[in-house]
Amino acid sequence: MGIAIVYETLEGQTGKIARFVEDLLRKQGEDVMCIDTADKMTDASFDGIDKVILAAPVHERRHPRAFEVFVGASRHDLADRKTLMISVSLSAAFPEGIGEAKEYLTEFEMRSDCKADATLLVAGAVRPSGYDYFQQQVIRHSVLGERYKELDGGTQEFTDWDAISDSIRAFIA
Fold it and tell me: Packing angle between helix 13-27 and helix 161-172, nearest 10 degrees?
């Protein structure tokens, strides 16, 4: 079975997730192809592909535009294959943010005119030392609130790797 992982990463966490999924699938003997939608020179053929895993982060309430455009342009190819959409956001890290994380996914589906067979909301990571002042304030006051004090300026990862593994195994079964 051929599996494509179509992803885009902005700060690196979604790329880390895509590589984790790729390694997991290869260890299970699957034939895997990765497509980074930020790379305009990537071969985007779905020949020999039975299942597709889509993965993208949410920043400022939306997935990357190049990812949305790629998925929208590929929607007919994707409709012929079983698909899983992994939406990576900080909103997915906390129970009170799940509703908002679902809204991001709904908005993505409307913009790309593509609805995956299965979805997975995944918590991302925070890298405050790499943010400008405005980004730090949004993370501090709008996203993390009191939880921000727990950060020491370094990366804080919220990703549940076991949940991703379980979902990927279920998807390919």
Answer: 50
Q: Residue type at 16?
A: K
Q: In what order do the strands lie in the sheet with 82-89?
A: 31-36, 2-7, 51-57, 82-89, 118-123
Q: What is the pLDDT along the chain (173 residues), one digit of tens a residue?
A: 799 999 999 888 999 999 999 999 999 999 999 999 998 877 688 999 999 999 999 988 899 999 999 999 999 999 999 999 999 998 898 898 899 999 999 999 999 999 999 999 999 987 766 666 766 666 665 666 665 555 555 677 889 999 999 999 999 99
Backbone phi and psi for residue 166, each to the nearest 5 degrees, phi listed first = -60, -45
User: Three-state SS string across the chain, please?
Assistant: CEEEEEECCCCCHHHHHHHHHHHHHHHCCCEEEEEECCCCCCCCCCCCCCEEEEEEECECCECCHHHHHHHHHCHHHHHCCEEEEEEEECHHHCHHHHHHHHHHHHHHHHHHCCCCCEEEEEECEECHHHCCHHHHHHHHHHHHHHHHHHCCCCCEECCCHHHHHHHHHHHHC
- pTM value? 0.88
